[in-house]
Amino acid sequence: MIKDLSCKWNFIIRNDASMNQGREDSSLSFFFANKLRCLVREYIQNSLDAHDPDLSDEPVKVSFSYDTLDCSQYPELIISLLERLKSCSNMCRSIENGKDPYYEKYEYLNERVNWGSIGYLKVSDYNTLGMPYETERFKPSKFKSCVRSSSSSYKDSEHAGGSHGLGKTVGFVNSGINAVYYSTKTTEGKTYGEGVVKLCDHLFKDEDGTVQLYENVAFYDSNNGTRPDSGDSIPEAFLREEPGTDAYVLGMEYNEEDIKVMRKEILRSFFKAIKDNKLLVDVCGEEFSCDNICNKIEECFQEEGELDIRRTRTPELLFNPRPYYKEVLCNINSDDNHREFDTSDSSLGQFETIGHATLYMWKSDSIRQANSRDSIVYMRDNNMVVEVKRGRNNKGYYALFLCDGDGSKYLRRMENVTHDKWDLGELRGESKEYQKTAAKVLQEIDSFISACEKQMFPEEESEERTIVSLRNRRVSVLGDKKQDDEVESIWPSTNITERVKVTKANGRTSILESLPGKRKKKKSKGKTVASNETNLGPSVTPIETDSPTPTPTDPPVPVPPYPHPAPPMPAPPFGIPETPDGPVVGGEGNFEGNTDEIEDSGVRMREIKLDGRNRHLIPLHDGEFACKLVLTVPRDFANCRIELFVQGVTGQIPLSLNRVSDNCKISGMDSNEITGFNLTAGNNVIKFTPVESVKNYTLIIKAYGN
Where are the domains of the chain? Predict the structure, then answer.
């Protein structure tokens, strides 16, 4: 028996005045790498956002289940797509050197049609509002945004998840035929249902037998694709019986390995929401609730052990939630090693921009003994894990940060497409004032965590490891072959200078710097160096050494005598910045500068002159970045750029970079420029890792901004 009713795929002929769509929609590419993880997170997040306020005491329930459809009963929904997929494959192959993502889909569907049935994954939510539909053409609605729109997000709250409108594409990415059917019932009792398929433009014969170019997207309904079906016009298999929404991802077959992945991702991303009884999840009859989550986490993450020790550059994908659930949350305030900090505590500081936020911390010697880095899981008010950051230290703690105050709405807007990173770059197009406030949110989060660390570890003083500077010797492009202590053999000199000169006095090493076009006058050993620079003057930065510096084998660089040194410059109102102890939110620091204007791609920029007191290079041993640069500036600078060079005997050599802080970009022909960030008045932190491990080099920095 045919169960399509009068529904069919309503492909329309491509208008000559419209843009063609080749291959697959580019929005799908965001989710290919971790498509099951993204599916779980997107659908559950959407369900949490749709929680019925009249059922606030009840958790949102989300169910994942597999089933099959008889292909012969749905010739329009299933079988008719076979020739469409074949045409898409031919269209892609007609382009020289073009990739064809549709041949495998055609082969899969052909096999399932011959087999007689096709599988699907059904994702259902309960205690939710459903998706209302507005019949008025230009009036937005949840159903239109989810099913009938691209890059569109319609949320009831500014704190709701997602702002890109691309999350809905996870269904197409996981579908074997790029098709999803949506069915919903509102709290008013209205039902709506419609299918949508995303292919590419393709050639197909129309009803008259004429070959036409058809558009890539089509809707499956009985209204010629103009609106969804409602009531009895919805095929019976898809008709929703209670408020909420069903998503049928067509072409997903039952797979045990996929179920294992889904179980892990549910626990990894939503363990707090489940613990707090805000979410209940069912996967093929297996329930994950606040009553059994402890056992489920131990079962699913048995191999990972009790600690989160895996070293990876993508901890948000692979972190172990066991310690964060069992120790950080379940044992909170049980003793001095399990503590809860709140932004309402005035002793921690003032955090007016982020509003209410909480940090749950657990410290243990076992973390230090396992050489596990300090780690923090970050969430906002929807209780879904967004970021996981490893700190640069090994003090011995794990923590969970939750922002459920006003800052959450800014964090939502800063989330990337896959919701696993807060990035200021996502605010392109927003006003400068909005971007500045968002940057302040990230800065306050960092400050709050740093203040909590100090209370958690009162016995430890913040220590900044400074590195012994270069001796009086030449440095080649690849570094000096001479070996000093282990740290110096890896990291660049602490102070970043042009033409570094070194003096030795009483076990102290002083670094003297010269700025372009200026000369320095030098007095006796260990004395202050004067300059006639009137801006941010040069400085002598004394650095303690363990023992007197040995006499260098190479002759010292000759220093011409100067008749009368100028009086020393007074220290600027800001000095060597204090580096926060906690994990640094990349790209959100403070900025500054002032001087010569230059041209950069048509944009006038101003060189930022900084002396040794206003820039500080700190080595990192966290496995992610080689070092961090702390810049202190007196005012805000926008659209900044940093150029990095190594001083060699033949001149300045570009220092190619392999990785930089979040929110920053690697630019330049030699990949030695850091761009895409702003500087705010005060301290700013930028992390980077060079391509090559250069030893004992002098790093030259040139900063520009507006």
Answer: 8-254, 304-453, 606-705
Rounded to two decimals, the pTM is 0.67
3-state secondary structure of 401: strand
Residue-wise pLDDT tens digits, 570-622: 444 443 333 333 333 333 333 333 334 444 444 557 788 777 778 888 888 76
Q: Which helix (H) or strand (E) holds 445?
A: helix 432-456
CA distances from 693 to 472, 487, 632, 662 (A): 21, 13, 27, 21
| CA 514 – CA 526 distance, rounded (Å) | 17
Contact 698, 602 (CB under 8 A): no
DSSP-assigned beta bridge partners for residue 335: 338
The CA-based diameter of the chain, rounded to the nearest angstrom, is: 105
Phi, psi at 658, each rounded to 5°: -100, -35
Closest CA to 699 of 684, 686, 682: 686
DSSP state of 156: S
Do the Cβ atoms of 642 and 655 come closer than 8 Å?
A: no
User: Please, are residues 452 and 361 in contact by the beta-carbon 8 Å criterion?
Assistant: yes
Residue 463: strand, helix, or coil: coil
Q: What is the DSSP string of 253-279?
A: ---HHHHHHHHHHHHHHHHHHHHTTSE
Q: What is the CATH T-level fold of the domain 606-705, as seen in this structure?
A: Immunoglobulin-like (2.60.40)
One-letter amino acid for residue 365 of the chain:
D
Pairing label, strands 211-214, 217-221: unpaired
In sequence order, what DSSP letters do the residues of 337-378 get, joined into one string?
TEEEEETT-GGG---TTT-SEEEEEEE-HHHHHTTPPPEEEE
Structure tokens at 422: 């807060």
Is there a contact between 686 and 482 (Cβ–Cβ < 8 Å)?
Answer: no
Supply the pLDDT for residue 455.
94
- Half-sphere exposure in the Cβ direction for 225 (13 Å, CA): 13
Query: Is residue 34 within 8 Å of 19, Cβ to Cβ?
Result: no
With tokens 């403070």, the residue in question is 590
Q: Residue 213 corresponds to which amino acid?
A: L
Beta bridge partners of 683: 632
Q: At what angle do helices 256-275 and 293-300 cross, to 10 degrees?
A: 140
Backbone angles phi, psi at 101, to 5 degrees: -85, 0
User: In the numeric block, which tokens belong to residue 50?
Assistant: 């749709």
643 close to 668: Cβ distance less than 8 angstroms = yes
Positions of the chain with pLDDT lower than 50, given as ranges:
157-163, 461-602
The pLDDT score that the predictor gives to residue 516 is 42
Identify which of 471, 537, 522 has the alpha carbon closest to the alpha carbon of residue 500: 471
Tell me: domain 8-254, CATH 3.30.70, correct? no
Distance CA 395, CA 369 (A): 10
* DSSP conformational letter for 128: B
Contact in structure between 35 and 263 (CB atoms under 8 Å): no
Amino acid at 185: K
Please state, in angstroms and rounded to a whole number, the distance separating the CA atoms of residues 173 and 28.
6
Token pair recorded at residue 374 = 């300090």
Rounded (to 5) percent helix, strand, coil in the chain: 25, 25, 50
* Structure token pair of residue 161: 């998840």
**Nearest residue to 587 via CA among 496, 687, 667:** 687
